[in-house]
Amino acid sequence: MLLKLLAATLAVVSTVLAEGAPGYSGFNLIWADTFDGGAGSSVNSNNWNIITGLKVNNEWQTYTTSSQNLQLSGGATVQIVPRKDSSGQWTSARIESTYTFTPPAGTRTMAEARLRFGDNSINNKQGIWPAFWLLGNSVRNGVAWPGCGEIDVMETVNGQLTGHGTIHCDVYPGGACNEPNGIGGAVSMPDQSWHTWRAVWDRRASVWTSETLTWYLDGTQFHQVSGATVGKQDVWNSMVASPLYFILNVAVGGDWPGAPNDATQDGYGSMMEVAYVAHYLAA
After folding, report:
1. Residues 116-170: pLDDT tens digits?
2. How far is the C-alpha of 238 from the C-alpha of 169, rounded, in Å?
3. C-alpha–C-alpha distance, residues 169 and 183, integer Å
4. How far apart are CA 77 and CA 169, in angstroms?
5. Is the pLDDT reported for residue 209 higher than 60?
6. 111 vs 54, 103, 129, 146, CA distance in Å?
7. Which residue in 9, 35, 56, 216 has its CB near the most CB atoms, within 10 A?
8. Residue 80 pairs with which residues in a beta bridge?
9. Nearest to 81, CA basis, from 91, 115, 41
10. What per-residue string of b and e applies to 226-247 under the rule 16 or more CB within 10 Å gives b?
11. DSSP for 98-155, written as a single string
């Protein structure tokens, strides 16, 4: 693995050189993708499905497989880049892991990614919506959203230096997670540069109502929910005791951020770049 370096003078399209998913005392690394490969190549198809043809949340973008929207940097990162063509049509990318995991009872499970955002000004990011999140694998087998369960480890909209961690569950509208809002917490980000976003499932409690799901930015907790928060064991289990898979995407427009405007810029300055995605289990 290459040594990670980051210089303040790097150009917009530059990246860190990644050393891989870190080790943590008390945890074993179970699975990771560190996005090794040549510059301009695609993600490992054994690890990721590249999603196309998906239209949700009144979003504007068309998801593609093009290297203009999705590429390895050559420095062990992946870049998801929204683009606007001469006719005003937006494209971007969304990848979903083939890998799934189920947080086991009696221990702690950790999911983590290190990522950054392009350095376009906040004033030029209206409608840009990057996310690192998980869905219950049951959605691939016919269970409708939000009954499948959703865990948003990190979302941010419109370039705002605020990260959001949220669960979505049960039924729409209303239900145990108050859809469409979900149950969420927010945290201020110091900048658009590299930060680590993590979710930890703690299933060591003797009763399901005391199990927890906790969000961290750079190792500092900013949100937590418990089984008692949700109040329904089957709904809680859809997020903590059922198979889950990773998603990375950059949406454009949609119900939450609103439409892009004339000032919204595309390209690397509005991208999300990811150094690794990793799954750990307590030793």
Report:
1. 999 999 999 999 999 999 999 999 999 999 999 999 999 999 999 999 999 999 9
2. 8
3. 9
4. 31
5. yes
6. 25, 10, 21, 20
7. 35
8. 70, 272
9. 91
10. bbeebeeeebbbbbbbbebbbb
11. EEEE-PPTTSEEEEEEEEEE----GGG-TTEEEEEEEEEGGGGGTPPTTTT-EEEEEE
Rounded CA separation 185/216 (Å): 11
Half-sphere exposure of 93 (CA within 13 A, CB side): 26
Q: pLDDT digit string (tens) for 227-265?
A: 999 999 999 999 999 999 999 999 999 999 999 999 999
| CA–CA distance, 239 with 227 (Å, rounded to integer) | 10
Secondary structure (DSSP) of 223-263:
EEEEHHHH--HHHHHHHHSS-EEEEEEEEEB-TTT----TT
Do the beta carbons of residue 98 and residue 246 sit within 8 Å? no
Distances in Å between the Cα of 263 and the Cα atoms of 60, 257, 258 are 16, 14, 14
Residue 237 main-chain phi, psi, to 5 deg: -65, -25
Strands 212-217 vs 195-202: parallel, antiparallel or unpaired? antiparallel
Upstream peptide bond of 22 is cis (omega within 30 degrees of 0) = no
| Joined tokens for residue 186 | 């927010």
Q: Would you state the pLDDT for residue 4?
A: 34
275: tokens are: 């150094």
Nearest 5°: phi and psi at 30? Answer: -100, -45
Q: Residue holding tokens 């890998």? A: 99
Which uninterrupted H or E stretch holds 197? strand 195-202
| Phi and psi torsions of 233, nearest 5° | -65, -40
Pair type for strands 90-92 and 62-63: parallel
pLDDT at residue 17 is higher than 80: no
% of the chain beyond a pLDDT of 90: 93
